[in-house]
Records
---
Amino acid sequence: MTATREPVAGALQLPGLSPRRARRRVIQVAGALAFAAFVVQGLIVVDARPQDLVTGVTGMADILARSLPPSFATLPDALSAALETFDIALIGTLAALVLALPFSICAAENLTPARPLYIAARGVIAVCRVVPDLVWALLFVTAVGLGPFAGVLAVSVHSIGMLGRLFAERFEDMDMGPVHALTLTGARRMQVFSHAAVPTVLPSLVGIALYRLDENVRSSLVLGFVGAGGIGFQILTAIQLFDYPTVAMLLLVMFVLVMAVERVSAALRRRIL
Amino acid sequence: MSNGATRTRAQDAARTGADRGAPVVEIRGLSKRFDGASRRVLDDVTLSVWPGELVVLLGPNGCGKSTMLRCAVRLLDPTSGSVTVAGSDLAALSGNELRDRRRQVATIFQHGHLVARRSALANVACGGLGRSRGLRVAAGHLPAAELRHGMECLARVRMTHVAARRADSLSGGEAQRVAIARALSQRPQTLMADEPVASLDPEAAESVMELLRDLATRDNLGVLCVLHQPELALRFADRIAGLRAGRIAFDLPANVVGAEAVRALYQDER
């Protein structure tokens, strides 16, 4: 451990610094420069021109002026669209929940019944997650046509990936003590799972699912833009008709919906955990 | 189950070497080498436990005590050797047969390993899961009969007053007693304890050791307890087996083991 080592490169020797500290300083400077270069390339690639925002602000003001006041006549329509959006998220999340649970058990290293199942489950979860829900929606619209059902399918398939991964991680992190203890009592696999693993992780699984519901409400809004029903679809239609007061109304309802779901899901999660 | 004939006082039997019937656990030639390791953690360990006796496996840290216990209950697969429980070799069983045999050997650990969010009673009743079948139990339901029996087991460890409390609200000593009650609800013949008092304060440690002693004497259980405190071993055990670098250094009645032999166990410890 304490064997003396020759400094690797004498050239790194800076006055007043030990070789080791000098080396660390060089690494720090190089790291900072690399990070700066990274950020600069990012700014160039995204074509960042803040001055355009300043000159273009009148356009935004114009569109705002044309949206006001929101069209209250369209409120009932907006509400039913909002309900549709919420239901897409709700049904999509529930369906994902039912399917994600077995996948996540297979995909958790400490619970998986067999190695091939583990690999298969990890694969399914990865594909579901990596393909964005927007792409799933486009796929399902071609299969089942325009409408909320395509949205439900897209939300649930993508959520299987998200929930599956988080659930599996939660299972892998759990305290295995009770699981081993019950295994040693001669309990069956399924009994050990339901009597030791489930009570241990259930609150955090419910928390994850509630958070997912909240995310899914937001993503089902966006899915409307590709034809998967709900309030997003209404916004798209109104924009295409240049009906900005209706757009404003829809955005208002959407804002209330998202805030409400976020609040309720956060409050429920606080209670459970 | 049919131990009527073997209800001799273990101490007497150990002293005289008289016929004590069949051991509840018979460990023979147990060796364990971890994958990639050159040294054997356990080397040809042979040890038996008879009903009604408290055997302490004593040794310094890293001598293989816990590994031995884990091999004995098949939390680890031994490299070679056999562990005979009720006539069959645990090391050679799998599936349903292994589960059946496991029910007769109860294990407790340094920590209670209770399911934190369930009541103490529910935790205890879980010890009887191996006897239950069916979908409701597989889905997390505990049969009423097991809950009743769980209450009896809690009474045996004098813990009925915590029955309704959540397991994560119990103190270390309380949790360990509840874990012992869960072990009893298996209706075992043998109790294996892996450093059951290592994380308890002296008072709680004392009472847990007294309980283990009492379970051997009054309930005729064979108790194999891994400890690293020689003074507790000398006070509570019928028999002490000293383990040193993976080998049994001595296996003697507690009243015969000298301080010298115990000190020798710890001499190599750095």
---
Amino acid sequence: MRMKQEFTISIFSENHVGILTRITNVFTRRNLNIESLTTSMSALPDVHKFTIVVYSTRDEIEKVSKQIEKGIDVIKAFVLTEDEIIHQEVALYKVPTKTLLEGNEIEKLVREYGARILEVTKEYTVIEKTGHQNETQELFDKMDKYGVVQFTRSGRISVTKSKDELLDNYLRNLESKKNGLTAN
Amino acid sequence: MDTQSQTAIKGKIRTPVRMTGAEAVVKSLQNEGVNLIFGYPGGAIMPVYDALYSVQKELHHVLVRHEQGAVHAAQGYARVSGKVGVAIVTSGPGATNAVTGIADALIDSTPLVVISGQVGSTLLGTDAFQETDVVGVTQPITKWNFQVKKAEDIPYAIARAFYIARSGRPGPVLLDITKDAQFASFDYVYEPVNYIRAYKPIPDVEQEQIVAAAQLINLSKKPLALIGQGVILGGAEQELREFLEKSGIPAAWTLLGLSALPSDHPLNVGMLGMHGNYGPNIKTNEADLIIAIGMRFDDRVTGDLKTYAQKAKVIHLEIDAAEINKNVHADVPVLGDVKETLPLLTQKISPNSFPEWLEEFKACYRIEHDRIIKHQLAPLKPGLTMGEVVDRVSTAFGDDAIMVTDVGQHQMMASRYFRFKQSRSVVTSGGLGTMGFGLPAAMGAKLGAPDRQVCLFVGDGGMQMTIQELGTIFQTKIPVKIVLLNNNFLGMVRQWQELFFDSRYASTELINPDFQMISKGYHIEAEKVSEREDLDAAIQRMVNHDGAFLLEVVVEKEGNVFPMVPSGASVSDIRLE
């Protein structure tokens, strides 16, 4: 409970203006640093998904997740750990094409790390690698010896390993209750 | 649950009526059963004021003297009536002046709808005259807020605002309406909101938790119930009494839980917290079971969490899931509206009584009485104490007035020594501790409960933070009784300076104006008392006076509020001196 570890919080919300600040505010108030944040549509129509990675204790993160769920337009927040999710990040590396032509180290790294080349021009080459943060970081560290001029990494995206679709069930439950409500 | 939805006539308008956005604001308020609002006009909200002009008889507008006063008045109104309080302000400074009241309403769970005007939508983001990002500013202090830029969005936004403000754990909602949306015409229809997919105001009750809670209660030898405002907000006063009377469990109330039970109920053992009673604080750490009912374990109640109620299992009855385990771990969380969960619990518990355990509270009370209370209520030395003034005023009102307070020593003294017969008799700023809250909140309280006497206790510091509302009291003829306890000090800060800062009274002494003269300047009757023998007669004149009245009572200059749990100390380390 007291040990800090990495958590991935999956938050589902209505697609309304201003929700992102309501969510990030919960972290700011508790002085928690957000490691990464991505937002996109989910598989469900009208439902938006936020994926936030944060280091904290289980105890605190449970409180955070409940405070996030208090947001009126937040549908549900799930606190997930590494073993419960499949996750990926994308990293882009821009290197001078010259370094590629002058030696085969970069090419070797691209093969070794399962990266791929996106674009080659006379001046620069853009390489892409998908993976976990430590993998994309490791590739950066190795490639930077030969001069990476730009490096950028996306936030984490993830899907759960569970067979039950937690949100689906939750929403279905809600809808059936609502229908019960109108029937009365 | 939510009083207004049960009593208000909620209008549905299905046949479209052509009107402007401003008219739609007014019509929607009426459809939500609103007949009284507090506000202050200005450029960006003028179309709404123009629409209000046409319906003055049905929708009364109280013109305050500062927007902070509008929000506090709406809070006072909401707290005594159980309805949603409504305040209306202009853009920019109008809205930022409302911020303190909105923050106060959030932390004290008060249902409010605040409507602010905004510059025209084409000017948004251009630093236009009186433009402030009000939605941004109020985002962390509202339950929900929203900017309306199109007239046709007004009915739904208002319907949603009222539903959110009053349902579940109530709170303030702000709607920011651009001026062009107020001017534009559209076909108006109105449909009240009672469902929002992503919002679950009342969690489902889990039967297993009720069973588990009942088991703990049935096994407990030293149980203590903590009564919070949730009981009042849920309208569960009767359910609480039935629970307590069957279980025989002693009950202590938080500052906002005051009046949820009658003061003289045999199981009422007094107030929790920093300046609460000796017994409930000490016994919290001896109890083997804490049953928290609609309260949130505020730090002013718990003191040091590491030593708080360590011998006790904790049952937490709460409507807001985020409060469970936030400060104090709940062995059995009972989510739901206490109006629903308390009777379920009462059904499952065995009738019981705890005469010896109750006797321990009485013994604590005797100690507190001997060391503190009797010196407050019947002092032998000259110089009026705040406690004796509160006690006499309470008696003069037959112990059945609504007590409104500002913040500071007088607030604690009023909470300790005023007595209550019925619920919703207290309006005070608990969580935020907002000085200046009292006077405007008292106006709102009187308008929300016109048949009851409303008595404000206020200090000389807090009075001067919103003193201009005397103008509103005069203009609107609001018959509130104001007891100004004047010690020419910011008393609570001075007390802390005396106890924790070597009596270095940095910026706490006040050189005050002639409050009687100010009051009379507003044509409000006023009197000043400084001698004990004059007190009762003056109070009687205040009670009997037909209209508003300010009674200034000069109290001892350096009186302290005791008992006291020093900040960060354990509740059992409560100091008697």
